[in-house]
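Lab notebook, bench 4. The sequencing result for the construct came back, and we need a structural model before the next group meeting so we can plan mutations. Quick request posted to the team channel:

Model the 3D structure of this chain.
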Amino acid sequence: MNAAEKVPPVEKAYRSRFVDVDGIRTHYLEAGEGPIVVLLHSGEFGGCAELSWEYLIPRLAERYRVIAPDWMGFGKTAKLHDFEGKRARMIAHIARFLAVLAIGRASFVGNSMGATFLLQIAAERHPGFAIDRLVAISGGGWMPENAARKRLTDYDGSLDGMVGILQSLFEGSVWHADEDYVRRRHALSIAPGAWEAVAAARFRSPNAPERKEFGQADATNYEAIGVPTLLIAGAEDKLRLPGYATDVAKRIADSKVAVITGCGHCANIERPDIVGDLLLDFLTDKAGQPVAA
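Done. Here's the predicted structure in token form:
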């Protein structure tokens, strides 16, 4: 690692909160006032709301009340895993989180796992989510099981392993060359219960048939999504195939696509300047006012 390369500094203009959601201690970040925007983070080892959204929250909070929860099993939320229905339980937990905070209609932004889940939630018309507008960053479409994906799923909890994860997530070398950033990511990935909660998704009984999470057909019914949708993709995303976002957008009636060059899987971190502009433009009405929820 080259210690001379440093990631951009962070303006921590947000508050850390906890709330009890049906007995699950749930952590979230909050900032700003106005119409609500809910941010749903990615699902790599060590993933959490702070890492995904720390560069974007200050920008969005100038116009919106921003709420960014940690998914069940991630960040500072309780390290639980449902072996019978991981995805359904995680989504149900966020739906109850929204209810506990009395969040009605809101705009939603997701990255990676958060974006894919969000598209599925919108397609299924989940009753717990009143979505006004939807932004999916590197979510949806077919997910190939390639070498970059293998670095994410085979993470062994080491510093070198975390470097491999960051090489898969980002195009720019600074994100895996900055030793402080790597160590910060690594510490979050090996916090008590953190590695186990994410790794649990790979566990399989020796009596169960083989199953794969990636490299499978995308069964999402995108045609059923009935809200304005913006898909943001990194042109150099190692975890997706070129053109996947355009293919998904063709199946959503009211959708737009933005492809960011020189950017990998986490545009919200790697290019928050461009993503911030895209979000504020998409979430603002033609009169220049934030869209009211």
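The mean pLDDT is 92.
Will bring this to the meeting.
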